[in-house]
Specification:
There is one protein chain. This protein is α/β, with parallel strands linked by helices. It is globular. The longest helix has 18 residues. Helix 6 runs parallel beside helix 7 and helix 12 runs antiparallel to helix 13. Helix content is 35%, strand content 22%. Bound molecules: N-(iminomethyl)-L-glutamic acid and fe (iii) ion.
């Protein structure tokens, strides 16, 4: 397709040469070019500018698309999801409404163990089919790149099944996908403790899965009742010997020293951070000096759904950090893959200006899965993955009119996907 988008009210995140990410006060300067044009040829963006420089494309040579009163935003880059799973956990939700906490539900065999039982039983093809449906749903919502974790298998066979499903999704997906082996997610009942299960993950699963080309990153749930800092250290070190970086669940309920550990070991991201102290923030700042920081990733749908505190996004950005926002889509703590809702909560609950939340959900999300060369901004040479909004007076309408649909037309690889 060749297409010229004209009279765009605001072209968001447009750079001739995109930085890899934006941090701190630069997030407020995520560019918005007013009254703009953008041209797409094939699957790539090839140029943009203000309307005074709009190219004259001979009629019949390209589709001309008027975007009066509409913004164009780079597709959402969701850097943290558990999109491959077998069953919903709506029954547990009822338990919660009746007074049980996430920890109490887990202690009676619910939670991750419940998801693992269902996943172990489900044939690979069925798991693939329901996961593909979920993937196509979120592409319709404007997601243009995605990370997916394993972690509901909890046996070698079932973890491999999950990772194989992610690999198959990569092969058919219209959008780029990264695969994360969430080896240490919960301790299965057959194991005495987290340390023994970590041994099994490190010795028996990780090397095989890496050699089968199933793993882009590793992950662990560093949390009381799940995996200790020592377990996580061993997993990260084993992965690092195989040249695999980590993205780690830390500070969801308790601070166990995971942030500092991950920063020291060059983690790509630390995710959750519903609670975070000044020492953690200092460690994350320190990682910025290397040029390839550990990205703090906030998951506001999880806070919303579990009534947890929100990650202090405002504080992290004010500290100069490159905050990213993601969905955490999963059946237990965030049964939604809606990045627009994530961006809304970024403003409504975390104090981010809309443009900061958008930068966190696009370019920084892309960088938190090392896809910033392909997606995350409107830049010549990047994939034409973006969406056209409904008519809006300003980007602040995204959180302000909090029930209105934002995404009108979705383009993936230069083609109209929905709208
Ligand atoms: O990111 N916290 C750990 N893992 C998931 C939830 C897993 C579940 O409850 O199914 C999360 O919130
Ligand atoms: Fe998660």
């Amino acid at each position: 397709m060749r297409a010229l988008f004209k009279d765009i009210k605001g072209l968001v995140g447009c750079y001739e040469n995109s930085p890899n990410f934006v941090a701190g006060e630069n997030m407020k300067n995520f560019p918005v070019l007013k009254n703009a044009w953008m041209e797409v040829v094939g699957e790539k963006i090839i140029g943009f500018g203000s309307m005074s420089t709009c190219p004259k494309v001979p009629s019949g040579k390209a589709q001309i698309i008027s975007c009066t009163n509409r913004y164009i935003i780079p597709s959402w880059c969701d850097s943290h999801s558990h999109l491959v799973y077998a069953n919903d956990r709506a029954g547990e939700f009822l338990d919660r409404l009746r007074g049980l906490s996430y920890e109490e539900i887990a202690a009676k065999g619910g939670g991750i163990l419940n998801s693992a039982r269902a996943l172990q039983k489900l044939p690979e093809d069925d798991l693939f089919d329901c996961s593909l449906d979920r993937l196509l749903e979120i592409v319709k919502l404007g997601v243009g790149a995605l990370e997916i974790k394993s972690g509901y298998g909890l046996t070698l066979k079932a973890e491999r099944k999950m990772l194989r499903v992610i690999k198959r999704l990569k092969q058919v997906s219209p959008i780029p996908i990264r695969a994360t082996f969430l080896g240490c997610h919960a301790v299965p009942a057959e194991f005495n403790n987290s340390s023994d299960y970590t041994d099994h993950v490190i010795s028996d699963m990780l090397p095989q899965f890496v050699s089968e080309g199933l793993v882009d990153y590793v992950d662990a749930f560093c949390e009381t009742g799940y995996f200790s800092k020592e377990d996580v250290t061993r997993l990260i070190d084993a992965a690092s010997k195989l040249k695999i970086k980590c993205k780690v669940h830390v500070n969801q309920f308790n601070i166990l020293g995971g942030v500092k550990l991950c920063v020291n070991r060059g983690a790509l991201s630390v995710d959750h951070l519903e609670i975070i102290d000044d020492a953690d923030i200092a460690a994350l700042k320190e990682s910025l000096t290397s040029g390839s920081p550990t990205f703090p990733v906030a998951l506001p749908l999880c806070s919303h759904f579990l009534s947890l505190p929100y990650t202090p996004g405002r504080k992290l950005v004010d500290a100069g950090l490159p905050l990213a926002l993601a969905t955490d889509q999963n059946p237990g703590t965030s049964p939604s893959g809606d990045m627009t809702e994530v961006v809304r909560l970024g403003s409504l609950k975390m104090g981010l200006e809309p443009i900061e939340a958008i930068a966190a959900a696009t370019l920084n999300g892309a960088a938190a899965m090392e896809l910033e060369d392909k997606v995350g901004s409107i830049t010549p040479g990047k994939l034409a993955n973006f969406f056209v909004t409904r008519e809006m007076s300003g980007l602040e309408e995204i959180p302000y009119r909090f029930n209105d649909v934002v995404v009108d037309k979705v383009y993936v690889n230069g083609e109209l996907w929905v709208g």
